[in-house]
Amino acid sequence: MFSECHGDDTTSHPTAATIAGRIKRGSVQIQQAGIKASGRIGTRAMMAFLVMWAMVLQGLVQHSATVTLMALSDPLSSEDFAEYVANTSYVTRYCRPLNESLEAEASEEEPPRDEEDYEDDALLADNDTAHSGHHTRHIVAEPDLKVPLSEEDSIDSIMREAFLWGSFLSPLPASFLAAKIGPKRVMGGGILGAGALVAFVPFAWFTAYHMLIRVAQGILIGATWPALHMLGASWYPSLQRTGFVCYYSAVSVGYAAVGLVGTRVVQLVGRDWLCYVLTVLTVLWFLAWYQMVHDCPADHPRLSAEQRQRLLIAVGPGLASRQAVPPVPWKRLMLSGPVWACSLANLGSQWGQATLHLAVTKYLKLVYGFSLTYDRILSVLPHLGHFMAAILFGMVVDHARANDIVSTTTSRKFLVYLSHFPVGAILFIVGYSGCDPSAPAALFTAAVVISGATAAGTYASAIDVAPNYAGYVFGLSQTLGAAGSLAGSYVIAEGLHGSLPGSWRLVFGVAALVLAVTAMLFMAIGSGSAQPWNSLPLPESPDEPLVPAVTVEVTLDLDRETPGAEEEQDTMGEQERAENEKNDEQRVEVKEVEVTLTEQELTGSKTGLV
Fold this sequence. Notes:
The protein is globular. The chain is an all-alpha fold and 610 residues long. The longest helix is centred in the N-terminal third of the chain and has 31 residues.
């Protein structure tokens, strides 16, 4: 009996070796499933899906601290909050119904009158109502200057700025690192590191250590942006890159998800569990990313020879192999007008986004009584609309460019115009939207949705001007973008709680001005064409891949044989000689096609060559 019981105990409690074996078999099965899925779905489609998943994780990580803080510090129910708004909202206190306001003013300022005067007033009131229609409220006083800043708001501001400082420091160094070790590793390491750090947050909630974790997360997340641009330039032809870049906007889906689902998780099972869930999701993403994504088509082991050849032709051999990129021409890059136009447009865009998500949301809560904690529509709909608009803009722009409806430069300038001027105008108007609470809520939603054009305009321009150095250009652009977010946050803090308290219109006006100025600079000197310093030189050794450049030697002497070619061919077998002759014929055909191209077409991109 003892042996039987002992045997049952052994089967019910597997040894460490058994567990390790199961984990290993499970890992192999996951890898095999990933290989099959990658083959059936398509390499680039799988990479696009994983990029969107990564951006959702970015949004979750970035806003997890804010959601946790607000979920635990706001014990009011929806009914209690409605009562709180009725008693404290600026609109409730300063926007009175027109009849009540007139009665109050009359009782305070005017002496007693006889019945005839009241009859005349009634006639005048009827006449005014007939002309005014449904507008029966008006502002009778300016809101209080002092905008309340709770302890939770102060902690949230510190944590958010710590993250922004990290994202300001890392993009440019990360572009060097991605060029050295590959964008796949930088992207994977950045997301995995940021997600893994979330697991340590339960031991450091809202302490100095938590702030250090936020800085580190900002550094790791900021490093992913230039790596993504390098992957896009290596895997996608010019006429398809806009769609890929628009996948970055999935970060707004992360904002919506953490606000909608994260709040419930914190309230039901505690704030620590939100951190553990994020860490698990990040690890699962990393396993898929490491298995299915590669730096360029030349490095992908599961691409067929035909698929690899098509990508080499469409993207360009230099980009598709990442072996022929020369040293960065820093002087020309830093003196390039289109590069600075793209970077400054990104600064303006992120300044505007900071104002929308920090100042306008606070304005809706304190002035009009909205709370994104309770209003699911305002906390989810604008972010989902932003992502859907970005995808739509990317599809439309790539289609228009592929069919020669508009040039790349024209499309980029139009999208920058769309993502800056209307958003700036809305920000300016919000400060004068009056007592109707539906107006600023609708304007806020419209501004967030329209700003979805940023990815197809500003972000994509960083690849257009220098595909071979897209990581460096976008690293500079994101550095200035993070600076714009920090500057916008500082102006909001000073304009609402600091030296200029309660200056709502000033905060909105400054953001509108920054958006307008940066957009005008892009309209003046921005470009969607590859710059001359982006061109790759011819390879110096026969082992290097062909690059898309044509010189006088290539164009005028196509039939010249390589020295020693006859001796080399004599030593070949029959099969190798036939194969070599076939490859020579293909090279001649490619060269003859390239000879007919103009210099502008070679640096442009209808053939995918850059």
